[in-house]
Amino acid sequence: MSTDKKPGQSTLAAHAGYDPMSHQGSVNPPVYRTSTVLFPTVEMLERGDVKPYEGMRYGRVGTPTSKAFEDAVSALEGGYASVVSSSGLGACCTTLLAFLTAGDHALITDSVYGPTRNFANKILAGFGVEIEFYDPLIGAGIRTLLRPNTKVIYLESPGSWSFEVQDVPAITELAKAAGITVMIDNSWATPIYFKPLSHGVDLSIQAATKYIAGHSDAMLGVTTARDRPTYEKLKTTHYLAGQSAGADELFLGLRGLRTLPLRIDRHGQTGLALADWLAGRPEVQRVLHPGLPGDPGHELWKRDFTGCSGLFGFLLKTYSREAVTAMVEGMSLFKMGWSWGGYESLIVPGFHLPARSKRGWPDGVLIRIHAGQEDVDDLKADLIEAFARLAVAA
Ligand SMILES: Cc1ncc(COP(=O)(O)O)c(C=O)c1O
pTM of whole model > 0.85? Predict the structure, then answer.
């Protein structure tokens, strides 16, 4: 751009990592389905960084397809550089692994995604890392938990089942003073609605499987580092641990990213409209959505986020498992599945909620909704029929 004005989110999403002239004018980069890369000379074979091979040495190490996706995500996150992983969980675990070693203490939010919690408890703890879970509402109170050997604080905000919003700047200010690396699972907001690195976070992680890919057809993760030293530390472990992503998944991730601002806006608006409507339903005890005024996380969300995605929860009044099952099993538009971020709406009953050690779950069945791209009135009609089944079965 010719002026000093920074490009907007949609412009960045459309153009970041975009280099048609390197690909004979093709708008999208070719999908490099590559394992072996061939070199004509020993010098090229050994160095791998000479023209035309820059960045291409072996498929796992990176291709123009992975670079285009990484560059685009880095631009949106406002970071130095990114690395891709084969799944969101792969990105969470690789990032933790890169900054922890035996004898270190790691503070992890109690609202963390369940499998990330399991990795910390089963793998990291097994390697001699002390794992401590903290209350996601702790804010600056995290000061009391810091120890001389605290090396990592791992956030997820909002939590993908409990939806608490964390006071990220309060935590990063303390962490910075103590030389602690802060990382966040930013999959709920995506970089479109929350910029962790501009709030002092060192590494932002995306389960790109969700909103970035956006069509429920790819598994992909990506971590963006704030600066070069942080990136190099991450990249070393990433390489040593054999992380990479498939060419077709990268293509789908980049393709999804181009329309992310548009899609997430629709997810967010539909989600908020449903949340607001559900809050007035007699069957509902409480809605968990930081975008709703009155939600405990609303003020922090308003301060730090620029929008909300389509994932939220609501707590039913007291109903039996059978009644809730009857409610969710007969839906016509909402489907049941352990994910979110796709174009289709999802509903999941939280009969077995993720483990928590600092903050229990409220009484009542928690239902998680992912608002898709459908018309909101059709989704409400589906929910009205579901509430009718709940009433009959109660
Ligand atoms: C908050 C959060 N982080 C990470 C992941 C892991 O992503 P993936 O399924 O791509 O491994 C998920 C998956 O549901 C998630 O909900």
Answer: yes
